[in-house]
Amino acid sequence: VQLQASGGGLVQPGGSLRLSCVASGRILSLASMGWYRQAPGKQRDLVALITTGGTINYLDSLKDRFTISRDNSKNTMSLQMTDLKPEDTAVYYCTADDTIALREEGYWGPGTQVTVSS
Asked: Which residues does residue 50 pair with via DSSP β-bridges, in sequence order?
């Protein structure tokens, strides 16, 4: 499975960004897709996941500002991020898994940098 994310960049506080991810390869086995993020010196966090069946989970502190969606027919997934804050600055990773748990042991794409700064 190969994952390619796009859409990162520099945004001012309060702004919005949309991250997208395209999956290719052995995608029929995928049960979940989602996003992790990691800021320098901080632990890696699971931001959001969505299963093939449409179940969605968010990091509690983000659920009011982030929205994950998935188009199974196009093998794509997106993360709409609004009201961005400096603490959202991190490398965001598109990930996928053969289980619904979106384990860290699953598939990872190269990260995309999101920087929130004035």
From this structure: 33, 56
41 token code pair: 């010196």
In angstroms, rounded to a whole number, what is the distance separating the alpha carbons of residues 97 and 106? Answer: 5
pLDDT per position as a tens digit, 56-68: 999 999 999 999 9
- What pLDDT, in 10s, does the model give residues 32-63? 999 999 999 999 999 999 998 999 999 999 99
Taking every pair of Cα atoms in the chain, the longest distance, rounded to a whole number of angstroms, is 42
Residue type, position 9, single letter: G
Supply angle C-alpha 49, 52, 58, rounded to 5. 15
Q: Are 50 and 118 in contact (CB under 8 A)?
A: no
Which single residue is written with the structure tokens 């509690």? 60
Who wins on pLDDT, 51 or 73? 51
Residues 6+ apart with CB under 8 A from 43: none
Q: Give the integer Cα–Cα distance in Å for 29 and 34.
A: 15
